[in-house]
Amino acid sequence: MKTYKTNELAKQFQIHANTVRLYEGQHFISKAKRLKNGYRQFDEIHFWQLFICRKIFEFPYSNSRIRKSGIDIIYASGSQKVELLDEKLAVYRSIILEELQKAQRANQLLLDWLNDQTIEEETHYYTRKEIASILDTTKETVRNWERNDLVQTTLLEDPQQRYFNEEALKRCRIIYLLRQVGFSMHAIYQCLHALDTNDASLNLSKEEAFSAGDRWLIELNSLFNSIPSLEEAVDKLKTLHLLTNL
């Protein structure tokens, strides 16, 4: 099996040798063998573990769901729990696909609003919990959007329960999208106000919102397109694990 010194492994990924040591200390990659002189000796298993790290960390602006799932893959790889890697990678792929679908839907809503196109839909009401479930977020997050006047709710029969209609759900989809790309509550309020009022002086806010949605879609598509290379790395690790345990 091919071996690497710390600097040699670092050069393979154009990173500093201290980054390799950091990853080892964080258990992102396995502990290196120590030679008699105390120097670390890495091998092909470390190469593919580091490949997985760099491929996942290549996208620093992915959201918390994607990041957590990616970190799960890294820890399974670093601890050589190869039997978990296929399952972890499947979850990672599934989450990225879900986020892609949400982003595509929200982007279409933004485009419809920009073009003053509204589609009449059958009236349906959702609880805060249902909205949170649809968007894979928390009830407190949705409540915070309400507090910041980003979305309006409706009172029906139960005065203790507020409901979201279809228009409110659409707004929540857009709010979620803009939060993924780092928009502050104030910036989202301005964007939504521009869309609501059709004020020509606020066109920049509209364009910023749509441009941000486009960037998030590009990021998600890049993440999805990176999965085959992760699958290859996982296959390499499983093969190496078998060879070293013969």
TrEMBL record:
Q: What domain of life?
A: Bacteria
Q: Which SMART domains match?
A: HTH_MERR
Output the PROSITE patterns linked to this UniProt entry: HTH_MERR_2
HTH merR-type domain ranges (all copies): 125-194
GO terms, molecular function: DNA binding; DNA-binding transcription factor activity
For this UniProt record, the keywords arranged alphabetically read as follows: DNA-binding, Repressor, Transcription, Transcription regulation
Under which name does UniProt file this protein?
DNA-binding transcriptional MerR regulator
Organism from which the protein derives: Breznakia blatticola
